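QA checklist item 7 of 12: single-chain prediction sanity check.
[x] sequence parsed
[x] length recorded as 527
[x] structure emitted
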Amino acid sequence: MVSVAGPGAIGRVALGDIVRRSARKHAGKVAIVDGPRRVTYAELDADVSRLANALLARGLQPGDRVATLCANSYEYAVATFGIQRAGLVWLPVNQNLAPGDVAWILSHAEPRLAIIDDALYAGPLGAAVDAAVGDAVVVVRRDPALGSKHTSFDDALARSGAREPDVHIGDHDLAQIMYTSGTTGNPKGVMHSHLSVFSALLANVIEYEFRSTDVGNVMLPMFHCAQHTLVIALLATGGTLVMMRSVDPGELIRQIAAEKVTVALTLPPIYAALLDHPERAKSDISSLRLCIYGMMQMPEATLRRLIAEICPNFQLGTGQTEMYPCTMTFKPAEQLKRIGPYWGDSTIVTETAIMDDNGNLLPDGEIGEIVHRGPNVMLGYFKDPEATERARAFGWHHTGDLGFFDPDGQLVFTDRKKDMIKTGGENVPSIKVERALLSHPAIANAAAIGLPHPRWFEAVTAVVTLKPGSHASEEELLSHCKAHLSGFEAPKAVCFVEQFPLTATGKIQKNQLRARFADLYAEAPAR
């Protein structure tokens, strides 16, 4: 057992305690399903302590950073909790980034050790990790070819005891540093305490009404805050997690049917793909009671079919790495009552307001920046005090999102502040243009961006991908938009791409599109 000594121990909030507390109540219950493996809470709790002891035995001190570069797996869950149980700082890194980007994050964060999948270590990321970390690497699963410098994950556990380490952890101690997805440039390291993440956990348990009987899928990568917060919330309530290593609609259907999944979390395009997937006709997915989505808007026609055919309860969750999710949620009862980019209302731990550029809070109906405050806010940006102060100006966390409250107190998102297109003296929300584009039957995905223009300052520009086998000309799409938008809102040009640059959770990286097409209107007349 952990010691009760030390100041503040009686009011302890520590993320590594989540599994222990659930194991006391649900020792023999399956906590994690990972392929053929079914691991109980008691086994998970013991492995978490073994890893924590292994890390401390290597000389790491509380507060040291440990990076993880892993696909979803049982080992990844053990690593996350083990790092934090040892009083160390979890540094999840998106393993899908280019080696140069991974190297930049590692050099900026300066971890003492990295935990990396052997398959990833054997590729270009291995060199990046060795160069930046400089300490021995604990490798998930054994690969004898890696040599004696590296300890396998299994060996690290086998050589350590399952007694929980006696480590004092304060609720405001740094628990993790998550680097933002970088849609606006270089990522920033977002620092969170044990208390801020635990506050978000409580909000998720309450707002989604999680139960010990719930079985949840883990399809999105665990290095992302949305998936991580649901992992810890379900484990805190005694639920079961089903690990998935890829974002695959067919595999999701099979897992729901096989494991009787009750709570799903994924992106709107994946939900849409379930509707007509051949696996659906031969699978019983009636166990679903709640489908959580986020990151992007759900088309109305798709949402109506999903509610009628897949699951009666769809719920939107929003948040940021900086304000641990979820911060706002659009409840199932509201989904078809209000159609549009609704974010709903604040969670039980978050207060939300609308603010102008001078720090004044605006009344309902007026558009301004969405700001939050609450215990789930970040400690700040790692090594960037100036950006931290900008983010918390006027005593609120600034999201960079624009929106307003409707007469019923439901928040409506209008655009990212940086994505609002300023053309000819008018403001054009990019999501309004994207909704018009996506209503064309040939378009699979779309982004509206503002590009430099000698006459309009910024020209509304559409970037689209077409559905397989579909065809549409630029003239056809421009005419379609003009029929749905005001003249100043309609795109001036359409750019066709094979695929979009995306973050790990499917967000379009508009900064890359703006850079790619920056000179599109260079020869356009100024008048």
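[x] summary fact logged: The first strand starts at residue 30 and ends at 34.
[ ] second reviewer sign-off
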